[in-house]
Amino acid sequence: MDFNPRQAVVNNEDCDLHYWYQGTGPLITFIPGGNGHGRQFNPMLAALSDRYTCVTFDRRQMSASQVKVNKRLNPPQQARDIRTIIKSLGFEKSIIFGSSGGGIFAFQFAHDFPEMVEHLIAHEAPTITLLPDSSAIFEWFLHLMEVYEEYGLERAAQEFSARLTGYDDEGIPKTVPPEPENPRNFWDNEFPVLLGFTPNLWRLRENKTSIGVMRGVRCKDAFFARAATEQAKILGCPIFVVPGHHQGFEVETEAFLPHFLKMLQTLEEGRQ
Question: Which domains does the chain have, with CATH numbers?
C-alpha cells in the first residue's frame, strides 16, 4: 500500500509523544532504537498496512517528541510510553517489533506489561552483558564515553559506527538520518544507561511470552547480532538470520518482509 498515515499526539509523563499509524487489523508497534525516530519504519508500515494496523513514533526526547528538560534514559518509562500509544489507539494488546535499543525497550515492555504482548520480535537488541566477551565490550563502551566527553560527538560516533557492518555494502541504500539533536541526546542521556542495562529475560521466559529474535546477515559477528544468539539461548525462542544490516528492515524491506511474516507465523504456531 501507499504510505499515507494518520498523525497523532498523546501526552505521557510530560512528553507529547508524536506517532503515526495506518492500516486495519491486529496492531504492530514498531519501536525505534538509539537514533530515536520512527521514520525508519515507514517502509514497513506501507508494506504491512494491508493486513495490520501499524504504528510507530518518535521516542521521548527524540525528533518531534521533545520535553522541556532532557533527562537520563529510563527504560521503564519508555515502556510506559509504548503502553500509552497502544492504548490511545484503542488496543489492549499489540505485536511488538523493536530494533537495536528499541529491542531492549520491547523486552522491558514485555516485562512490565506482559498481558499487552501478542508477540514480540527483537531485532539485534544490544544486551551486551549476555555476551561471552561482555567485559571487553563493556570496557569499549566506557572508552567511547570517554572519547565523547573529551573529543566530542563526531569522534565517538565515528568509532562506534565502525562496528556497524554492512552499511557500506555495494548497492545498499542509505538510511534516513535522524535530526541532529538526536545523537546528542543519545550520547548524553541514553548511552550511559544502555551500556549496562538488560531487562530480565528469565522473567519473560517464566511468563511464556511469545518471543522471537533476529540478527542481520550483513552484521556478521557484530556484538548486537551476537547478542540475539545469547537471548535465544535464555528465552528458548526462535532465532532468524534475516536480510540486511542493523537497519535492514528500512533499506531492504522487500527482502526483509517475508522473514518478518515467517517469524509471526512461527510464533503463532508455537501457541497452538
Answer: 6-271 (3.40.50.1820)
Nine cell digits for residue 19? 506517532
Kindly give, in sequence order, each residue whose CB lies less than 8 Å from that of residue 46, ignoring residues fewer than 6 positions away. Answer: 1, 2, 3, 22
CA distance 61 to 189: 10
CA distance 187 to 62: 12
The model carries a pTM of 0.98
Give the pLDDT confidence of 123-146 residue by residue, as tens digits.
999 999 999 999 999 999 999 999
Rounded Cα distance, 166 and 224, in Å? 13
Angle (CA) 88-100-24 rounded to 5° is 35
DSSP assignments along 29-51, one per residue: EEE--TT--GGGGHHHHHHHTTT
In the chain, % helix, strand, coil (3-state, to 5) comes to 45, 20, 35
